[in-house]
Fold this protein.
Amino acid sequence: MYQFFDKTKMIKRENALIDNNANQNDQFSHDIFHITLKTQPEGHETIYFAMGCYWGAERLFWQTTGVSNTSVGFAGGFTAFPTYEQTCTGETGHTETVKVTFDPNIVSINDLLAIFWNNHDPSQGMRQGNDTGTVYRSAIFCNEQQLPLVLKSQSEFSDKLSSIGHDSITTEIQTDPIYYYAENEHQQYLAKHPDGYCSLRGIFK
């Protein structure tokens, strides 16, 4: 039973929903690339982006040359193997996240970071556009080797925002995330439903 909870306030670990049993969502096949969602080709890297509703964000990255796999899921929270319904309550602590696997010989992490910063508003805190709650907060989840580049890009985009008098960045940055795949109906959602909802909107567009 879910309790009444302010979805714009980050829940504490001790108050989060209890863990679920492990699922096999990583075995789903990608509708565009026709590989399992967990497949990572040799020499490719992975980074995770949260930028509001993950349907539109995933499409943005699967359409990027050099990206070899994508999926949608949840990161940055506490409840193990959360469901979509649970995350929407704000009581798992997760944010909707896109896992992006890419070939660094074709597309650089800086290219992907530029896509991230320029296609949403990273200053909105616990919301993105009309989507409100911690589950829509802006975040980057990366590994330790990627972190310096992530922090550098954050600083550069922050300067860009300051130059136009915009609010400060609220994007959360974490290393070595625990990521849980969402249910199959959410994977490549806008390929299955081309007229579906997409809230992506950058500041400079």
Observations:
- The two ends are 42 Å apart (CA to CA).
- The longest strand covers residues 67-75.
